[in-house]
Amino acid sequence: MKNEYDVIVVGAGPAGSMAAKFASENGVSVLMLEKDRDVGYPVRCGEAVSLAGIEEFVKPDPKWISAEITKFSFISPDKTEVIIPFEGKGVILERKIFDYELANLASQKGTEILTRAYVNGLLIENNSVCGVKYDFRGKQFQIKSKIVIGADGVESRVGRWGGLKTHSDFRDMESGIQITASNINVDQNTCYFYWGSEYAPQGYLWIFPKGNGLANIGLAITGDIGKKKSALSFLNDFMKNYFPNASVLSSVAGGIPFTPTLEKIVNPGIMLVGDAARQINPLSGGGIVSGMIGGSIAGKVAAHAIKNDDLHKIYDYEILWRERLGKRHEMFNRIKNGIYKFSDEKYDQIAHSLVELPDEKRTLGNVAKKAVINNPSLLIDVAKVFFK
Amino acid sequence: MLKYNYTKEIVLLLIEILPDKCDFCGCCVGVCPEDAIELKEAEIKIIEELCTNCSKCVWSCPIEVLKFNRNGIEAAEL
Ligand SMILES: Cc1cc2nc3c(=O)[nH]c(=O)nc-3n(C[C@H](O)[C@H](O)[C@H](O)COP(=O)(O)OP(=O)(O)OC[C@H]3O[C@@H](n4cnc5c(N)ncnc54)[C@H](O)[C@@H]3O)c2cc1C
Ligand code: SF4
Ligand code: SF4
User: What confidence score (pLDDT) does residue A367 get?
Assistant: First the structure.
């Protein structure tokens, strides 16, 4: 290890690894610190991604793909099922292996990686972040850098220490729980989404197949729902009613910040990527691909700023991110605010109008349009969702 | 265990971490407005000097690890 690095990345999730890879690739020295002993474990994720999103960064490998998805199934509160073919291709990852692979890509480009290194403070000089303090196997260390990239996920304390407001309102944080269970008899190429107050009010419950009868089953609810009934309790009820014979092979909790990107994701000497920056798609809750996109932009921008000896250039990252996805996420957030608050009756009404459409017309793009035509009262809601 | 919070009232820590239940997922840390929770790989701690007992972490914990205990955590530990 060196005494000083150009860039220190905190957190070795998908966003951190991509930031590290792109910074290394563009010719600066990078150290990535991860608090856990294993990169990629525990897996706090449903593991569903679009193949096209992943392919921008890494060649698909059967090693880390556990199922291919060609259909979505939406189940409304009265159990009406709407099946929609997925025009692109989705995959369910094996994230333990996938995250390893991404870290490995960074390492191949020159990033040094240290696990079991818990970052517990920042070095700050002249109002600018210039390194980190960390605990490694019970001993305290510190190390300097020109730029720190906070990729420390939903908790992002690194962001706060760097003067960026990374905490989420409890009403925007979806508290999630997920199990990987066996004996789940569902179609192995379909992702299932359950809507309504029985399953996950102001959120949804998902079943994502993982091959051989295994599936990820999880749900997320906001803190104002959690006040009355926890995510755990919702999931226990669902499993008792729908899959009483399933065995649970693993179980994880996790937070998903359902908000648009933070207003500020850069301060002098520090940049935030992935969940730390709230780069999750606030409509779906998917954050793997968007975190990788954020990471890749940040890594490149950091390297160029350092090589041009103009650290102020890291602010370009905020603009580039907004153009690439940030603005789109703001629109998704407005749609979410409408859809997630629909009553059970409204979900049922939409589902009924959709099942009547012939198969070939039931594309995701057509759904909104046709739903409106088939059920004019929806117009007001959709209009509200889009224009509010 | 008595402490002062920013309103200068004497406050007792009322948030209890139930033993052996935490999954160390970070959800509570993400909603804590005071940065009062320290979370390592398999270790969680509430920093009493910073906590205001607002309970947001309790509501956000997906698996019922945190509990608001009006008697204070010391009483609960007895
Ligand atoms: C239940 C659940 C289901 C989900 N399902 C999906 C899905 O199906 N599809 C999808 O696209 N997204 C999903 N997401 C979201 C997705 O998991 C995240 O958006 C993604 O992991 C974000 O990547 P990241 O690199 O920003 O952060 P993370 O993957 O969370 O990585 C952050 C890393 O930083 C480390 N770290 C934190 N603090 C420190 C510190 N102080 N020092 C050192 N290291 C630190 C952590 O240990 C962690 O390894 C889900 C999330 C949850 C909780
Ligand atoms: S009660 Fe409030 S201040 Fe205290 S740890 Fe929980 S969220 Fe933070
Ligand atoms: S939200 Fe609950 S499970 Fe997650 S770290 Fe906090 S106390 Fe532990």
Answer: 62
The residue to which tokens 């779906």 are assigned = A284
The DSSP secondary structure of A136-203, one letter per residue, reads: ETTEEEEEEEEEEEE--GGG-HHHHHTT---PPPTTTEEEEEEEEEE---S-TTEEEEE-STTT-TTS
As given in the structure block, the two tokens for residue A331 are 């629109």
Residue-wise pLDDT for A126-182, tens only, equals 999 999 999 999 999 999 999 999 999 999 999 999 999 999 999 999 999 999 999
Answer yes or no: pTM beyond 0.90: yes
B62 vs A153, A155, A253: nearest CB: A253
Taking the CA of residue B21 and the nearest CA in chain A, the distance in Å comes to 11
Question: How far is residue A169's CA from residue A334's CA, in Å, rounded to a whole number?
Answer: 17
As a whole number of angstroms, the distance between CA B27 and CA B21 comes to 14
- Asked if A105 has any chain B CB less than 8 Å from its own CB, the reply is no
The Cβ of residue A334 has, within 10 Å, a number of other Cβ atoms equal to 17
Give the integer Cα–Cα distance in Å for B29 and A37.
Answer: 20
Cα-Cα-Cα-Cα torsion A379, A380, A382, A388, nearest 10 degrees, comes to: 150
| Contact criterion met (CB < 8 Å) for B29 and A154 | yes
C-alpha torsion sign, points A59, A253, A279, A88: positive
Per-residue pLDDT tens over the stretch A234-289: 999 999 999 999 999 999 999 999 999 999 999 999 999 999 999 999 988 999 99
- Averaged pLDDT for residues A15-43: 96
Distance A201 CA to ligand 1 centre (A): 23
Contact yes or no for A166/A160 (Cβ under 8 A)? yes
Ligand nearest to the CA of A136: 1
CA A242 to chain centre: 27
Within a 13 Å sphere around the CA of A278, how many CA atoms are in the beta-carbon half?
29
CB under 8 Å to A369, separation ≥6 — which residues? Answer: none
ipTM value for the complex: 0.90
Read off φ and ψ for residue A301, nearest 5 degrees.
-65, -40
Largest CA distance in chain B: 34
CA-based nearest residue to A262, from A107, A117, A156, A124: A156
CB A208, CB A215: distance < 8 Å: yes
Tokens of A222: 């906001």
Size of chain B, expressed as the number of residues it contains = 78
Predicted local distance difference test score (pLDDT) of residue B77: 47
Q: Which ligand is nearest to the CA of B3?
A: 2
Q: CA of A51 to nearest chain B CA: how many angstroms apart?
A: 27
Contact with chain A for residue B61, Cβ under 8 A: yes
Cβ atoms A75, A192 nearer than 8 A: yes
